[in-house]
Amino acid sequence: MDCKETQKAIPRFIRDELEGRELQAFLNHVESCEECKEELSIQYLVTEGMSHLEKDSTFDLQGSLEAKLSGLGKKSKVRERAITVMYVLETIAILAVIAMTVLVITK
Length: 107
Ligand SMILES: [Zn+2]
Known about the structure:
The protein is mainly α. It contains five helices and no strands.
């Protein structure tokens, strides 16, 4: 699997639609490719973050991403980066909610 195929498969990985050899090829590539791993983290956090916001439930993105990536080995550097991305996205999501609230109030 190359970068293009891997990044195309990210939404399906997030929806748990990858199986068997395709899933294995995806995981193998993500494990060895920083760029695709970062893309996966971002897409995963955005997708999960938005669905959590819609459902108004508590954030446990760190736990759920770690659970999903647990098959990829235990590289702490990767986890740290994923956590950093998560905090940034969480902040953006919160700011977006505040901005929308302000817009509604001032209308
Ligand atoms: Zn790649």
